[in-house]
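Extended Data, panel c. Modelled sequence:
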Amino acid sequence: MNRTTAVGTAALAAVVVLASGCEHGSRPGTGTSTAPSASGCPAAFARAQSAVRQAEQPHTAWNGPTTGPKAVRGRTIIYVAQTMTNPGVAGTANGAREAAQAIGWKFKVIDGGGTPAGIQAALDQAIALKPSGIVLGGFDPKSTAQQVARANAKGIPLIGWHAVAEPGPSENPKLFTNITTHVGDVARITADWIIAHSGGRAGAVLFTDDSIPFAKHKAESIREELATCGGVRLLSYVNIPLPDASSRVPQQVSSLASRLGGGWTYSAAINDLYFADAAPALRAAGRKGSGPPFNIGAGDGDPSAFQRINSASYQAATVPEPLTQQGWQIVDEFNRAFAGAPASGYVAPVHVATAQNTGGATSWDPVGYREAYRGIWGT
């Protein structure tokens, strides 16, 4: 998330694209357009089509760590969640809980409730409990700078999940590591899916939460990649904080459907959660669940997103985080920290899930990670 510079005025302007032009050459639900020569951007279309085909392939072998320190015993981990109503945060927390049980550690979640004050209070509470390690789950550490500094001073290792923009160790803020897919890769493949699926002719809406730097960076990267195709127009950039999505998205979607009409053919969102809240408004506006607009989430790939995709219910694709695997990785990274070893450096590969490649599943994770981590820990 899971839960840069400001977007230019010109990029935010509404540009109504004729529906017939936006849908030219696309085959809803099948992945990509048929002919690059008919696209709105032949070179960008060909590149996007190749990238999407690769990302839609299943990952059949574990490419993560297979060596590391044996399990350190008797540890307690606290997961401070931005909000457990964020499916990505909740999914990763549940994976970490499962992994903590496997390695023999105590595990606790403290929910920040989605507000700055609530997250600060949750992290205060976590530090007071003197755990072995704390997870910063889906929120910007700068919003809890005092608490982070206090945890650092007490020698409590911190691991982020979607806490900063890039995976790996961080010095400012000081994190043993941050776990996420490469946000740039996720953003690019999200935009490329729109370019490829539409044949390079689309009118798009982008939903984001600019209060989270990680999400803002992802959204602006999506916008930049869409701009590589002249036949794709960004009709609206919609900034709604994730905790407010249930109350604000339906009204916003109703307004967009009325204002943009048939010109709105595609949507991207920094989190699948937006499409759960958009579905009733799109239905009320007379839009079919199979699209248009064809909707893709740039994370986090929670079960409800897969259910919408598999049933053609107002979402066509997602770029899922491997939430359960990342929960296991959190525990493995803490074990490395406790043993005095460096972070693993593992970053999950980017993947696009559609109804054609999910096999009816409601989540996506690389294969073999549980066995690999248990083998490392000796459990």
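The CA atoms of residues 227 and 233 lie 8 Å apart. This feature is highlighted in the accompanying rendering.
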